[in-house]
Records
---
Amino acid sequence: MLRRFLDLPPDSVPKTVFFAVSVCLVASVIVSATAVSLRPIQAVNAQKDKQINILEVAGIYNPDAEVIEAFRAVEPHVLDLDAGRFTEAFDPAHFDDRAAADDPETSVALDADPAGIGRQARYVIAYVLRDDDGAIDKVILPVHGYGLWSTLYGFIAVEEDGNTIYGLQFYDHAETPGLGGEVDNPRWTAQWRGKKLTDEQGRLSITVAKQTPAAGEEFHVDALSGATLTARGVDNLVRFWMGEQGYGPFLGHLGAGEI
């Protein structure tokens, strides 16, 4: 049978099919091997990009400095959302926020789900930046929620009073470039600095909207032009995570100097 196959003309159907299948198999093996070999590099680059975003939202990123060295100034802690305090139940060096959100042991299904995340991890990694005296200067908290086309993942930096936003930054999303994708435009994210989360009565008042809310300008971030649903998603996710279902209890302890 092999001899009969070899004796066939080069342009015969069997040889054409054999050649096409062989090329596909070889190409798939090469692509798969390349993907597997590059996976560790991709993981390192993703981790580096995440660290850069944390440094940027904390206001200490220097593009001329080594990221690993600069990141030593940031303390990772696992935060128990129910207790509103740090916990030593998990090692922050090996804790995965996203995996925790999918694990029934470390997450809960949400009934009230304005951020559109489905399940919420009960433990997350928070990052602490201290001043020269060792006191907490800022806390960087992970946030995520659904926009128009995708889940947006980012960080919000809150100052030591537990109520003043230092910055907001997204590092992973698939919103429309030029519209919802402007969530990572520095000109838009700069609006967040100095905004307040709650009013004097302790009511969560931070708002992303076209018009200034009744609470006042210090609680207002102007919505993205032409990206109503993305802006609404950001508003929902920030209010969710900064409220009682999210970091509210922790921020209360932080503002009272109990962290």
---
Amino acid sequence: MFHSVGTPLTWGLFLFGFFVLLALDLGVFNRKPHRVSMREALRWSVVWVSLSLAFNAYVYYAFGEEKALEFLSAYLIEEALSVDNIFVFVVLFRYMRVPAEYLHRVLFAGILGALILRGVFIGVGLALIETIRWSLYIFGALLIFTGLRLLVSGEGGEPGEGKKDNFVKRKAEQWLRVTKDFEGPRFFITRDGKRYATTLFVTLLMVETADVVFAIDSIPAIFGITTDPFIVFTSNMCAVMGLRSMFFLLENVIDRFHLLKYGLGLVLSFVGTKMVLGMGLGAWLPEIHIPIKISLLVVAGLIGGSILLSLLFPPRHVPTKH
């Protein structure tokens, strides 16, 4: 089994605090559907980032600098990939014409689903690495391939406004009774004694599909930083929890980060290469381990640099909202 700094007590305390925050978010602060303002989004973004950095400080004091740097690197990668995820969500919501007051609900439900799916992905991925060590080569090759594709085309493998979106929507309408319009913030309604899925539920399915595609890239990327189950899980959960507030903060300016995909492509390619070098290539190449401090500097530099260049050299045409 992988060595983990997480004890049953630390796992229990993290999960307890995590679910308390979820309950407060859904049951107290955001119980009623409403349009999220920029000020509210900024406030909650600061809250989630501050809580994540506070947990990072706990990791530093409890487990040492190495684990703290692993957490911070993994968290930074996941947050950067989440920004790309936000771009896809913006496209999906514009495509489905979701009313602004319902966005919070579908995002919250989508994030709950993402947390469960990512927990499963992390468990399966770590079990696969433990059982078949050379599967790290596959994860590394996947990251390098995805990174190069981003660099060449500037496009990810995520569902956009095209065929994959329409496929999910078509299949949902084929297999389920679906209403022709939104029915308030509800995902299901009963009409004439029959159960219907609403258009909001179809939107939720599309969001979950997009997140599954992103998880295929983001979770192996974190494995390239660390295989400690506690660090992998907690960094992923902390990043995903801030995704909803970050969406409302960035939805109107996300199109301006047009160079971010290239920065992410370089990050994924770097992490994939780091993963393969760490395994070595038998007699052809000895194992080469890149220190976590260098990895953190490279990741932060690539992400920060691509965002800065996007702002310094804005796109010639910024798409307008539909």
---
Amino acid sequence: MKQITPMRHNLRTMSGIFIVIGVAILVLSFGPLVKDEVWFYLKELKSQKYFLAGNSDGEGIKDSVFARYLSKRPVLIEPVNKEFSIVIERIGVNAPVVSDVSVTDKKAYIESLKNGVAHASVSKYPSKDPGNVYLFAHASVNFWRLGKYATVFNLLRKLDMGDRIYIFYKDSTYIYETVNKEVYKGWNIMPLTRPVIEPILTLQTCDPPGTTLNRMVVTAKLIDVLE
């Protein structure tokens, strides 16, 4: 019987280790994106509704892993704070907003995005007055490098016209309705600098997730303010 030399054995062992490491990196990289897609598919399949707490007429259960994957009951979302945060029922987003973040200082905004969705420093704050509230966040696969909120906008492209977006700011609730969804190639400042004649909200992220090829931009108009 042919014997395996120590060198060949070592090469096989190293090859096996590299394969395991490669598979682990793929799982770590694309696992969160796959998880989000699976959750959204199951939610739609079950016709499961997500409601901002107080918006549901019936009884629901608190948002949790069990509620998202195993239950069919409506899920109630409690905003993480009411000082500055965002809730999007349709895609299960519930995250703080970090105010006054530079859109040109990459180091600064990468650090800010570890703590939530970023509010562009050159944009307006939520208000009844005409203006563009510009928020941006990751749609990424590198969650271990980019922090807890690296995948918060992974499903932004799933929003449809009419879907509502809630912004909590200084204890008031600003309710926006999605009116447009576009993809821009590369870095395009038009959605940030465009003139507006009404209060709007702009959400921006990378598209496809984990790349810088395009920008997914969702525009929503203010329809109500609860104070």
---
Amino acid sequence: MTSGERIAVLGTGVIGTSIAMAAARAGDEVAGFDADATVLAKAAERSGLRPEASLAACVKRSTLVFVCTPVQSIPRLAAEALVEAEDAIVTDVASVKSHVLIEVEAAARPQDLDRFVGGHPMGGSERSGPEWASASVLDGIVWVVSRGARTAEASAGRLAAWIDRIGARPVPMDPARHDRLVAMVSHLPQVASTALMGLAATEESGEPDILLLAAGGFRDLTRLAASSPHLWSDILLANRDAIAEAIDLYVKRLTDMRDMVQSGLADEVERSFAYAKQARLSLAAKPQVKTGVAVLQIPVPDRPGALADLTAALGAARVNIEDLQIVHSPEGGRGTVHLTVAAVVANEAERALAGRGFEPVRLA
């Protein structure tokens, strides 16, 4: 696929605006439309997209249309875009694929369905709105490409080529398989985070000091609870069977752990933790890191430039950062960085950090 695409983005929240920014960075012409004129204006200011007053005006002459709206509105907007942009490939960014493809097939004209391709960029965060957008949100991420029963192979290929060109990784995947997998690794974490935060908030009514004791682990686990309630309600209901199955499996794991703890089965509990720890360490590494990873815990002062000093020390030692997380202390004034590096350079990383006055502790 050559450069110079004419991109239309329908829905200019964090993902839509990030797509606009990545497209502009790649040299594409970008237009955008949002039902909220204020959101559209912010997106245009941030990304440089050309704001349009209607869907029809936005997609006119486009070659690739991204529908970046809530799940329930995608079928109608996709069908309209397929009519208004007769030569364009139309795709969506929803985290549910089977439901969307079925609903688009019901809403669109049969002769247009060869140009609709299901898509799901596995990026973003709990934040919403164009002010949180960045082209870097899409850098290196997996972007699922799902064909419906009537999707032309050439249409999926064109979308995949564009995804690759902007620096993401297109992965073809059957819609039903996609929904089953994201229910486990995307939707279930949202449910678990929301349930845990709701439980703690309820307990707070009887124990007003409970959230004062919330440390980094609780804050990490409940981060997703700050996500959009309306957005996630739509997603979960659209993928209800797969998420119900994932919740049942998770409940079984929790019940097994409870039983082991109640029975005092120390060896079994430790084995469960060791198995999960090893799996998490494998997850932290990029696919090309074959030698395993090490995790360093580093106390840092909460001041401007502290993180820059840390990363500069590693850069000078030519140590690549595979993953990085920051946990802020509720008392303020300090924080903790959890840093993941390839195991073979862990000693070099420790020496480099110690040389800059940091005190790294190797956790694994």
